[in-house]
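Objective 1.3, modelling of assemblies. Example input:
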Amino acid sequence: MRRAVVLPDNGAMHPSPILHCNRCGAAVVQRVPEGDSHPRAVCPACTHIQYENPRNIVGTLPVWDGRVLLCRRAIEPRYGLWTLPAGFMELGETTDQGALRETREEAGVDVELEGLYCVANVRPVSQVYLLYRARIVQPSWQPGIETLEAALFAPDQVPWDQIAFRTVHETLRRYFAQSADGRFTLQTFDVD
Amino acid sequence: MRRAVVLPDNGAMHPSPILHCNRCGAAVVQRVPEGDSHPRAVCPACTHIQYENPRNIVGTLPVWDGRVLLCRRAIEPRYGLWTLPAGFMELGETTDQGALRETREEAGVDVELEGLYCVANVRPVSQVYLLYRARIVQPSWQPGIETLEAALFAPDQVPWDQIAFRTVHETLRRYFAQSADGRFTLQTFDVD
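Predicted structure (tokens):
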């Protein structure tokens, strides 16, 4: 859960420019450190280097009786549109733990993970989605404050034109295509 | 490539404590922002929030004729030990692109990716490994400055007690176990 920041309309949470050293507070310079290949925010005062790296979005496809639980967003961006329970992976947790945490926080549903289903890159915003198939243990849920409502959808019920993110749209499309014979294989794709 | 920092012996590159705002330079406070669930480094002067998230290590298992190309480290930690070409994913690249870049930088070998093979969590240091199977296009390589030498190893030739990281050890063990019949499936595991 990370709700204090209103994201821009494209769903981006791109790191903002680093202007100061987060160790000593001095103004940084952008340069390629010795032995490195990329420009970094280097502190001329204390020599600390601030690295920025892509972030993982972890979450699940919670399934009950062939239907997937979607959450209608109570927050920007994409307020009112539907998505899978997912969010930024936190320090000190595994991808599995993060996926379960986000599912609990956003959908308020108890699930058991059934395997990693999708690894998707959203390069323009330096994000990697890692989404798991998950079995809903009991068909009841209590969405968190960032969710207006949650509901189960069969493929022909999904509001395809009201899905919040292209990554989620593509994951759902692939999931339902494979669910016909129940043979799920890892999906890897890029969304630009 | 990120070579300016000597890592501690456990291979950790854990984010250092955030003491100052990287937007305005003021001293931060650690608190849970409104609507959030985790403590963050919040700037009392400009309200900017600095998030820290896990980092991805991307790389490959470069294969030629059933043997895997390993690189002997010319840098700390684990100087002199063997590893797979891999490193921190950079902003603005996909996991595939990062894996290819690291393979080029560290092993100096031309490969074609054959699919994601391993997603491994190293929770104590908040890292996620994403390693791809890769076909070596031509059996020649020119290791970069962070590699002492590179060499192909069949399973019975691997220096199992001189592998730099447990994640790499476990990935190689699983790879060679599956290579017997050539049916590779995604490996997901945690290393603590």
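Chain A has two domains: 16-52, 55-190.
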